[in-house]
Every structure is written in C-alpha cells, then in structure tokens.
C-alpha cells in the first residue's frame, strides 16, 4: 500500500511540474497566456492531492496534517479559479491580466513549497 501511495505522490508532483513548466514556458517565452497544459497540470495535481489526503496506506499511528492539506487545497482551488478566469479574459480581450498570470506562477511555487517545507 505504501508503494501505491508513493506512486500517487509522484503523479501529484508531475501535475505541479506540468503546471509550473507550462507557466514558465509562457512567462519566459514572452506570450504570457494560459494554455490547456496548465489546466491539465492543475487537474492532475488536484486529483492526486485529494487521493493523498485520504487516510489510506499510512503506517500505524501516523496522522495526516489536516492544516497543511486544507491550505494546499485552498491554494489549488485559487489556482484553478485564476486559470479559469484568466482563460475567459484571454478569450474576450486576447490577453491575461499580468497580476493574474504572475499569481498563478507564484501560487504554484507556494503550493510546492508548502508540500516540501511544512
């Protein structure tokens, strides 16, 4: 069971890497737009994160850090909202507001940092 949990954790990290990688390509490529790969990355990260939040495959006596899980869930929901709103603005005006675009990247890094450091 622990092996399966590690596989799900690996998939969770791949989701965030996909999201951040797609964001970085757009940020440093000069276009600063939201792509479908960002949506795929946040979806993979969110689904795998929810699977990790379930109390399965934990060693006896180990408890989940629900404050950390809740914080990461709120952040991933905000990232998803920013992606959705940003893509709507992109379709309407042809551009994503800079604060919204940079917020996606910053929140993605914050979420990864919380996973590693907390």
UniProtKB/TrEMBL annotation:
<feature type="transmembrane region" description="Helical">
    <location>
        <begin position="37"/>
        <end position="57"/>
    </location>
</feature>
<keyword id="KW-1133">Transmembrane helix</keyword>
<protein>
    <submittedName>
        <fullName>Fe-S protein</fullName>
    </submittedName>
</protein>
<feature type="transmembrane region" description="Helical">
    <location>
        <begin position="69"/>
        <end position="87"/>
    </location>
</feature>
<keyword id="KW-0812">Transmembrane</keyword>
<feature type="transmembrane region" description="Helical">
    <location>
        <begin position="99"/>
        <end position="117"/>
    </location>
</feature>
<feature type="transmembrane region" description="Helical">
    <location>
        <begin position="6"/>
        <end position="25"/>
    </location>
</feature>
<keyword id="KW-0472">Membrane</keyword>
């Amino acid at each position: 069971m622990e092996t399966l949990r590690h596989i799900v954790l690996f998939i969770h990290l791949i989701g965030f890497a996909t999201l951040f990688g797609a964001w970085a390509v757009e940020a440093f490529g000069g276009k600063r737009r939201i792509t479908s790969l960002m949506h795929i990355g946040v979806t993979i990260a969110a689904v795998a994160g929810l699977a990790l939040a379930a109390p399965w495959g934990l060693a006896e006596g180990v408890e989940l850090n629900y404050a950390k899980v809740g914080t990461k869930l709120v952040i991933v929901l905000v990232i998803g909202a920013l992606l959705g709103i940003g893509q709507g603005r992109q379709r309407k005006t042809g551009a994503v507001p800079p604060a919204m675009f940079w917020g996606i990247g910053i929140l993605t890094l914050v979420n990864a940092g919380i996973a590693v450091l907390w």
